[in-house]
C-alpha cells in the first residue's frame, strides 16, 4: 500500500509540474502567477489530505475520493494550453472536479454512497459537469471571448443563441443538483446524533460554504462577468479549505486518542461505578454512553446501579450500538454508545483496553453485591426452619416459625438433639451432621416427627459451615400426602392408559385388517386419514402427500369426480347416511368398482368428520356380469338344442314314421287283393321302422347317454374312448360321483375329445377322473398343436357355464406347440 501511495504522489507531482508549465507558457493567461498559486493550493490541499486519509483508513474510499478531486482539478489545467485540442479538452473537463467533490462529500464519512437518492445526485453531477461542457463546445467558439486562445477543436456550428439556451439549461440543472445535495446534507445533519454532529460540523461548514458560493457564482455568471470572476476566485480558496477541515478532523481524532491516557488517570481515582462511567464517557466524547457489567454466574448484565441491563433493548434505538470489553479473554462489560464512534475504532479499542482492568475489578464487586442481595432475599423468603448445630449435636441457633418447633426456642438453644427428639430421629440427624462435617458434602434425609400432637413429615438438608453444621428443615407433610395421592392416581391412570392403548390397538388392528376400507374426511371432503385396506386398493400411502386433499381428486375416476363431489356435498348438507357405487382409480391407473357409504361422526377432539366405508366389488361385479352372460348362454344353448331336436325329429324319425304309416295302409289295402305285394310292403315298413328306431336311439344318446345313467361315468367314458379315432389313455376313480357331476364330467370329456379330433392334430390323448379335497377333478390333455382360446367358439364356453353352474371352475392351458390341457374342478358335496 505504501508503494501505491508513493506512486500516486509521484504522478501528482508530475501532473502539477505539467499544469504549472502550461500556465506559465500560456499565451492567453493574464495572471499566470495567481492561477499557479490556485493550482498549488487547491490541488495539493485535496491530494495531500486524501493521501493522509487513504493511509490511515485504507478500507475507506473517502481518502481515494479526496485524492481524485485534486487529480480532476489538474485536468482543467489543459485549458491553459496554446494548442487547440488540449485547450478544448481543458474547457470540457475543467468542471469535472466539482462532480468528484460532490461524490466525496456525499460519501463522507463512510466512504460509500448509501441511498438511491444519493446515487442519483452523484450520477447527475457527473452527467452535467463534463457532459454540459461537451455539448456547449459544439456551438460555442471559446476563442471569441478569450484573446490569444486557440480555436475550439470540437466546434460544429457556432451559435450564440444555442450557447445561451444551453448555458441556461445547464445552470438550471446544476442548481437543481446542488439543491438536492443541500437537502441530503440537511437530512443527514438532522438525523445525526450530537457526537456525530461534532465530527461533521467542520466538513459540512466548509463544504456548505463552497456550494453556496458555487450557487451564487452560477447565478451571477449570466449577469456580470467581473462579479463572476471574483466569486470564482473566492470559491477556489474556500473550496481548498474543505480538505483542510478534514485534516482538522484527523488531528481531532488523534487528540481524542490522547484522552486514553487521561482515562487511565481518571480510572485510578474513580471510586464509584458512576465515576468510572463518567470517565469513559469523557474519553470517548459520548455523554450518552451506558455501561453494563457481565455477571457470568447469573448470565446477565448489571448497570452501575446494580439493576439488570438489557443490551438488546438499549441497542434497539436507531444510532445505538454495543461494544464488548474483555480482560484476559474473559467478557467483563459492554458499552452501549453512539454509532458515530464506529468511525474511530482505534479510539474505542484503546478505551476498552485501558478500562478493562478497572471494569474487571468493578464487575467482581457488582457480582458480589448482587449475590449478597440475592442470597439475602432468598434467606428471607425461605419458609424452612434453619438450625445451627455443633459436631456433638447441640443446637446453637435457630431461625424460622416457632410453631414448627417441638420445644420453645429458649429451651431448644443449648440443648442436645438427643434431649429433644426421639432416639431414631436424633441418631439420623447426629450421623448426618458428622458426615457433612467430615466429607463437606450435602447430606439429605427425611423423617416423621410429631408436633403439637399431629404426625408430620420433614425433609432435612445438612451442609458444612466451618466447624459447625447448618440444618435446613422443611415440612413436607402435604407434599407427601399429595405425592401418595399422585402415585395412586398415577397407577390408576397407567392402568386406564394401558386399557385405552389395548382398545386403540385392537380398533386400529381391526380397522387396518378389515376387508372394508375406511377413510376419514372433513366436512369439506379433505382426507384426514385412511386404513391399510384403502392403501392396498389405491396404491397410495396414508401420508402428507394425500392428507388434506379432496378425496374424490385422490381416489375417484376423473369422469365421476364431479358426480361424487355433488353427492358428498348433498349428504353433508343433509347430514345423513348414503350409499353409492363408483369407479375408483389406483395410483398405477387400475380401475376398481367400489361400493361406498358416507356416515357423519365426530373425531377424538369433537370436530365434525365423515367416515367413508366401502369395499372393492370389482370381482363381484365381474362375477355378476359373467353369471348374467352365462345364464344368457345357457338359455340360448337350450333354445338351439331344442331347435336341433325339432329339426332332427322332423327331418329324420318323423319322416320315416310318416312313410311307415303310408306303407302300412297300402299293405292293408292289398292284403286281400295282392298278398305278395302286401308282404313286400310290410317288409319295407319293417326296415323303415328299424331305421327310425336307430335314429331315435342316436338322438337320445346325444341328449343324455343311457349308458351314463345305467352303468355310470366309467362305462360312458370307455364308450367315448372306444369311438375316438386316436389312442386314449383313460384313468378313472373307482367310486361313483353325484349324477350332476358325472354328467358334467362326461360332457367336458366329450367336448374336449371332439376338439382334439377336429383341431389339435394330436397323436394321443390322456383322460383322468380323480377326487381331490372334496372335488371331482377332470383332466383331458393332448400332445397337439395347442393355441386353443376358450373365449372363441361356444363349445368351451358352454362347458364353463355347465361347470360353473355346479360351483366349479374350468381351466384351459394351451400354449402354442405344447398341446392343450382342459381341467375342471367340480364340488362333489
| Rg calculated over all Cα atoms | 59 Å
Structural class: alpha+beta
Percent helix: 55-70%
Count of helical stretches: 26
* Approximate strand percentage: 15-25%
Mean pLDDT: 77
Sheet with most strands: strand arrangement: 3-2-1-5-4
Q: How many structural domains can be distinguished in the coordinates?
A: 6
CATH class of the largest domain: Mainly Alpha
CATH topology of the largest domain: Rhopdopsin 7-helix transmembrane proteins
Identify the overall geometry. Answer: flat
Q: Kindly, what is the distance between the CA atoms of the first and last residues, rounded to a whole number of angstroms?
A: 109 Å
What is the CATH architecture annotation of the largest domain?
Up-down Bundle
Which stretches are low in confidence, meaning pLDDT under 50 for 5 or more residues running?
Answer: 253-258
Task: Give a short account of the largest sheet.
Answer: 5 strands, antiparallel
Number of strands: 20
Polypeptide structure, described:
By secondary structure, the protein is an alpha+beta fold. It has 6 domains: 252 residues, Rhopdopsin 7-helix transmembrane proteins (Up-down Bundle); 110 residues, no CATH class; 94 residues, PAS domain (Beta-Lactamase, 2-Layer Sandwich); 103 residues, Beta-Lactamase; 29 residues; 120 residues, Heat Shock Protein 90, CATH 3.30.565.10. It has 26 helices and 20 strands. The strands form 4 sheets. Strands 3-2-1-5-4 form a 5-stranded antiparallel beta sheet. A 5-stranded antiparallel beta sheet has the order 7-6-10-9-8, sandwiched between helices. It has a 5-stranded antiparallel beta sheet with strand order 12-11-15-14-13, with helices on both faces. Helix 6 runs antiparallel to helix 7, helix 9 packs antiparallel against helix 10 and helix 25 packs antiparallel against helix 26. About 1% of the residues have low confidence.
Amino acid at each position: 500500500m505504501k508503494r501505491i501511495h508513493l506512486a500516486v504522489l509521484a504522478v501528482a507531482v508530475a501532473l502539477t509540474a505539467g499544469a504549472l508549465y502550461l500556465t506559465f507558457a500560456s499565451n492567453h493567461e493574464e495572471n499566470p502567477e495567481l492561477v499557479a498559486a490556485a493550482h498549488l493550493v487547491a490541488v495539493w490541499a485535496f491530494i495531500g489530505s486524501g493521501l493522509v486519509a487513504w493511509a490511515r483508513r485504507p478500507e475507506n474510499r473517502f481518502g481515494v475520493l479526496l485524492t481524485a478531486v485534486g487529480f480532476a482539478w489538474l485536468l482543467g489545467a489543459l485549458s491553459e494550453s496554446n494548442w487547440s485540442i488540449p485547450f478544448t479538452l481543458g474547457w470540457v473537463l475543467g468542471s469535472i472536479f466539482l462532480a468528484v467533490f460532490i461524490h466525496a462529500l456525499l460519501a463522507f464519512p463512510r466512504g460509500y454512497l448509501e441511498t438511491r437518492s444519493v446515487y442519483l445526485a452523484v450520477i447527475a453531477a457527473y452527467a452535467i459537469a463534463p457532459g454540459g461542457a461537451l455539448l456547449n463546445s459544439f456551438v460555442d467558439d471559446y476563442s471569441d471571448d478569450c484573446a490569444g486562445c486557440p480555436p475550439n477543436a470540437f466546434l460544429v456550428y457556432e451559435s450564440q443563441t444555442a450557447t445561451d439556451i444551453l448555458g441556461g439549461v445547464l445552470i438550471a440543472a446544476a442548481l437543481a443538483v446542488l439543491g438536492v445535495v443541500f437537502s441530503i446534507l440537511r437530512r443527514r445533519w438532522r438525523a445525526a446524533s450530537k457526537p456525530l454532529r461534532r465530527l461533521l460540523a467542520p466538513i459540512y461548514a466548509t463544504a456548505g460554504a463552497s456550494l453556496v458560493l458555487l450557487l451564487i457564482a452560477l447565478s451571477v455568471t449570466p449577469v456580470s462577468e467581473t462579479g463572476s470572476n471574483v466569486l470564482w476566485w473566492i470559491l477556489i480558496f474556500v473550496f481548498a479549505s474543505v480538505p483542510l477541515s478534514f485534516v482538522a478532523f484527523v488531528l481531532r481524532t488523534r487528540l481524542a486518542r490522547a484522552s486514553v491516557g487521561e482515562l487511565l488517570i481518571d480510572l485510578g481515582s474513580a471510586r464509584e461505578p458512576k465515576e468510572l462511567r463518567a470517565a469513559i464517557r469523557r474519553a470517548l466524547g459520548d455523554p450518552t454512553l451506558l455501561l453494563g457489567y457481565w455477571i457470568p454466574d447469573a448470565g446477565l448484565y448489571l448497570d452501575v446501579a446494580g439493576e439488570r441491563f438489557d443490551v438488546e433493548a438499549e441497542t434497539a434505538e436507531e444510532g445505538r450500538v454495543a461494544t464488548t470489553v474483555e480482560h484476559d479473554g474473559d467478557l467483563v462489560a459492554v458499552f452501549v454508545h453512539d454509532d458515530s464512534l464506529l468511525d474511530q475504532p482505534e479510539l474505542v479499542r484503546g478505551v476498552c483496553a485501558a478500562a478493562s482492568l478497572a471494569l474487571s475489578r468493578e464487575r467482581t464487586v457488582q457480582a458480589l453485591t448482587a449475590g449478597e442481595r440475592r442470597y439475602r432475599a432468598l434467606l428471607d423468603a425461605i419458609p424452612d426452619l434453619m438450625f445451627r448445630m455443633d459436631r456433638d449435636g447441640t443446637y446453637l441457633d435457630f431461625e424460622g416459625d416457632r410453631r414448627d418447633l417441638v420445644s420453645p426456642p429458649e429451651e431448644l438453644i443449648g440443648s442436645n438433639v438427643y434431649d429433644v427428639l426421639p432416639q431414631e430421629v436424633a441418631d439420623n440427624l447426629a450421623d448426618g451432621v458428622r458426615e457433612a462435617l467430615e466429607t463437606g458434602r450435602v447430606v439429605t434425609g427425611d423423617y416423621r416427627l410429631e408436633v403439637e400432637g399431629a404426625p408430620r413429615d420433614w425433609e432435612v438438608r445438612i451442609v458444612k459451615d466451618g466447624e459447625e453444621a447448618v440444618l435446613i428443615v422443611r415440612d413436607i407433610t402435604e407434599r407427601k400426602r399429595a405425592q401418595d395421592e399422585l402415585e395412586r392416581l398415577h397407577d390408576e391412570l397407567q392402568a386406564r392408559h394401558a386399557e385405552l392403548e389395548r382398545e386403540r390397538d385392537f380398533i386400529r388392528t381391526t380397522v387396518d385388517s378389515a376387508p372394508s376400507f375406511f377413510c376419514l374426511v372433513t366436512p369439506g371432503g379433505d382426507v384426514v386419514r385412511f386404513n391399510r385396506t384403502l392403501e392396498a386398493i389405491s396404491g397410495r400411502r396414508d401420508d402428507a402427500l394425500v392428507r388434506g386433499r379432496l378425496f374424490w381428486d385422490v381416489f375417484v375416476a376423473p369422469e365421476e369426480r364431479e358426480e361424487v363431489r355433488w353427492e358428498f356435498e348433498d349428504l353433508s348438507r343433509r347430514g345423513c347416511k348414503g350409499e353409492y357405487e363408483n369407479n375408483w382409480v389406483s395410483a398405477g391407473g387400475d380401475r376398481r368398482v367400489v361400493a361406498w357409504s358416507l356416515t357423519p361422526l365426530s373425531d377424538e377432539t369433537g370436530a365434525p368428520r365423515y367416515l367413508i366405508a366401502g369395499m372393492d366389488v370389482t370381482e363381484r361385479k365381474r362375477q355378476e356380469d359373467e353369471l348374467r352372460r352365462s345364464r344368457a348362454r345357457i338359455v340360448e344353448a337350450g333354445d338351439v338344442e331344442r331347435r336341433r331336436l325339432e329339426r332332427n325329429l322332423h327331418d329324420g324319425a318323423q319322416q320315416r314314421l310318416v312313410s311307415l304309416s303310408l306303407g302300412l295302409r297300402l299293405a292293408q289295402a292289398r292284403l286281400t287283393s295282392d298278398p305278395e305285394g302286401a308282404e313286400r310292403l310290410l317288409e319295407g315298413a319293417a326296415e323303415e321302422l328299424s331305421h327310425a328306431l336307430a335314429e331315435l336311439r342316436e338322438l337320445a344318446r346325444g341328449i343324455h347317454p343311457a349308458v351314463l345313467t345305467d352303468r355310470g361315468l366309467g362305462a360312458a367314458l370307455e364308450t367315448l374312448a372306444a369311438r375316438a379315432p386316436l389312442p386314449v389313455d383313460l384313468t378313472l376313480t373307482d367310486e361313483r360321483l353325484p349324477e350332476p357331476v358325472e354328467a358334467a364330467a362326461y360332457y367336458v370329456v366329450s367336448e374336449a375329445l371332439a376338439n382334439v379330433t377336429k383341431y389339435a392334430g394330436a397323436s394321443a390323448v390322456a383322460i383322468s377322473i380323480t377326487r381331490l379335497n372334496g372335488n371331482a377333478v377332470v383332466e383331458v390333455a393332448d400332445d397337439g398343436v395347442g393355441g386353443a382360446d376358450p373365449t372363441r367358439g361356444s363349445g368351451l364356453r358352454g362347458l364353463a357355464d355347465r361347470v360353473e353352474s355346479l360351483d366349479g371352475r374350468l381351466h384351459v392351458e394351451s400354449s402354442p406347440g405344447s398341446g392343450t390341457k382342459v381341467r375342471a374342478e367340480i364340488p362333489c358335496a
